[in-house]
């Protein structure tokens, strides 16, 4: 069997990232990331490093229960960039600081994510969704 092309490696890495996300496999997600991963949080600041990303995952698990569905992944031919479009089906479990009160509300949100890859790892994750849409859904 021939070696995986950079394009296919990028597609596979992003697909594995979301498979781990859906499985609640933080260790699997973290293993795909570079040590100095740059994480651009939706409408927030950039955090750097695998340790910061692990803290982010733990915080998210404390407040939200989420699953990625309808995943479509695209990648550049050279494998240095990838993008994913999907829906996040979620439940708001515990009030997150600065956000509306949690009462177990369900939400269904379109999301876009952008990735940079190098040396066999994901080096950047940038997530984008409409926060006002999410707020409207949890207020309903």
Description:
This protein is an alpha+beta fold. The protein has a single domain, classed as Nuclear Transport Factor 2, Chain: A (Roll), CATH 3.10.450. It contains 4 helices and 6 strands. Strands 2-1-6-5-4-3 form a 6-stranded mixed beta sheet, sandwiched between helices. The protein is globular and about 50 Å long. The mean pLDDT is 95.
Secondary structure: elements and pairs:
Layout (H helix, E strand, L loop, with lengths): L5 H18 L2 H6 L1 E8 L5 E3 L1 H14 E12 L5 E12 L13 E13 L2 E9 L1 H9 L1
Parallel strand pairs: 1-6
Antiparallel strand pairs: 1-2, 3-4, 4-5, 5-6
Beta strand count: 6
User: Number of helix segments?
Assistant: 4
The CATH topology corresponds to Nuclear Transport Factor 2, Chain: A
CATH domain class name:
Alpha Beta
Compute the separation of the termini in Å.
53 Å
Q: What number of structural domains do the residues give?
A: 1
- Quaternary structure classification: single chain
Helical content class: 25-40%
Low-pLDDT runs of 5+ residues are none
What's the CATH architecture?
Answer: Roll
Q: What is the succession of H and E elements?
A: HHEEHEEEEH
- β-strand percent reads 35-45%
| Structural class by secondary-structure content | alpha+beta
On the 0-100 scale, what is the average pLDDT? 95
Strand order of the largest sheet: 2-1-6-5-4-3
> What's the shape?
globular
Our Rg estimate from Cα atoms comes to 15 Å
Q: How is the biggest beta sheet arranged?
A: 6 strands, mixed
């Amino acid at each position: 069997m021939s070696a995986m092309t950079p394009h296919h490696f990028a597609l596979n890495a992003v697909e594995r990232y979301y498979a781990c996300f859906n499985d609640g496999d933080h260790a699997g997600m973290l293993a795909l990331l570079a040590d100095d991963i740059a994480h651009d949080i939706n409408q927030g600041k950039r955090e750097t490093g695998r340790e910061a990303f692990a803290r982010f995952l733990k915080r998210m698990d404390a407040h939200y229960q989420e699953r990625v569905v309808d995943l479509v992944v695209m990648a550049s031919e050279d494998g240095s960039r990838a993008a994913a479009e999907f829906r996040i089906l979620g439940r708001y479990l515990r009030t997150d600081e600065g956000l509306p009160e949690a009462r177990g509300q369900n939400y269904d949100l379109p999301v876009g994510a952008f990735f940079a890859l190098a040396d066999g790892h994901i080096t950047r994750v940038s997530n984008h969704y409409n926060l006002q849409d999410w707020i409207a859904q949890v207020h309903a």
